[in-house]
Design brief:
By secondary structure, the protein is α+β, with helices and mostly antiparallel strands. Helix content is about 60%, strand content about 10%. Strands 2-3-4-5-1-6 form a six-stranded antiparallel β-sheet.
């Protein structure tokens, strides 16, 4: 049907990672809350025994979990305030907290909240200049991931210059929330723990920057697919499965809204050119592809909706030009 609308896409890596984490967190929490509610309905016959067990658990652990929740939410708010001071700060919405006294749901919420805080720390560690006074506040808010990283680096702080140590810490802080380091990066960090000449230290630091960038790029490519899927769904579209490799190897994705009938939008992505093509298509049998008034209406409808998609993706760090 319509000729493709070609665009160039670019991304703000840390913002995209954070947006993808927020989307996945909201979906995971909703699944956890739904599962808990389903389990509650399925076991009504055992309610008395369960309530007695929950009462015992609440007496020993509920107060502690509530204290952790208060501390984590306070940490989130302070990190959010620091993030809001950055240029082009991303919009941040905390996933919904569980209702009632559901221990498993609250534990899921706390794990998710602490992971999101770690993502905010990584964003700030990358964006704040080395001389920024806000870094002192960031150190005060450091969570387990950043604390463990600092402790690991302090083990050889006396063997390295403070400037090299701080550079290493800042680079690794960017990928602290991404999980275990790849083997090549871990071996590089081991080398940086040895006594080094200034020249050798700078050479290893240069390679560390490259390794960190590679890991971050891989995470961003997967996050872009998550952001695209979640944003389309938030706007009311039904979306085909979007694989994590869409922004790596390219491909085609179709999406549509309920009531569109045979009409849908086809997105074709070319990572080598960082370009994407959108065009309206109609699923018809061969020989029945003559254009009609409905075709023009479908194209006009998509043209009116397209700017909203561009705006929503840009707010998540994925810019389409």
């Amino acid at each position: 049907m319509s000729g493709p609308t070609s665009i160039i896409y670019t991304g703000e890596p840390t913002v995209i990672l954070l947006a993808a984490s927020l989307a996945e967190a909201a979906e995971a929490l909703q699944d956890a809350y739904t599962a808990a509610a389903d389990q509650e309905r399925q076991h009504d016959a055992q309610r008395a025994d369960r309530q007695q067990a929950q009462a015992g658990a609440a007496a020993s652990g509920w107060a502690a979990l509530q204290a952790q929740r208060q501390a984590s939410e306070s940490r989130w708010q302070q990190l959010r305030e620091l993030t809001a001071s950055l240029p082009d700060a991303p919009a941040l919405q905390l996933p919904a907290a569980p209702q009632g006294e559901d221990l498993p749901a609250l534990q899921s919420y706390l794990r998710t909240l602490n992971a999101l805080c770690a993502q905010l720390e990584a964003l700030l560690a990358e964006k704040l200049p080395a001389t920024d006074a806000r870094l002192a506040r960031l150190d005060e808010l450091a969570g387990p991931e950043q604390q463990a990283l600092s402790q690991q680096l302090q083990a050889y702080a006396s063997q390295q210059s403070p400037a090299l140590l701080e550079s290493v810490r800042r680079l690794l802080a960017r990928i602290a929330p991404l999980g275990a380091w790849p083997t090549a990066l871990a071996e590089l960090v081991q080398q940086l723990q040895q006594p080094l000449t200034a020249e050798r230290g700078e050479a290893l630091l240069l390679e560390l920057r490259r390794q960190v960038q590679l890991q971050q790029e891989a995470a961003v490519q997967a996050a872009q697919a998550t952001v695209l899927r979640h944003t389309l769904q938030e706007l009311g579209y039904q979306v085909e499965d979007i694989g994590e490799t869409l922004f790596v190897s390219g491909g085609v994705v179709h999406f549509q809204k309920p009531g569109w009938g045979d009409y849908m939008v086809r997105l074709r992505l070319d990572p080598t050119r960082q370009s994407a093509n959108f065009n309206v298509v109609r699923a018809v049998d061969a020989g029945q592809n003559e254009r009609s008034v409905l075709d023009h209406l479908a194209e006009d409808r998509w043209c009116s909706e397209f700017p909203a998609l561009l705006k929503a993706l840009a707010e998540q760090g994925l810019h389409l030009q």
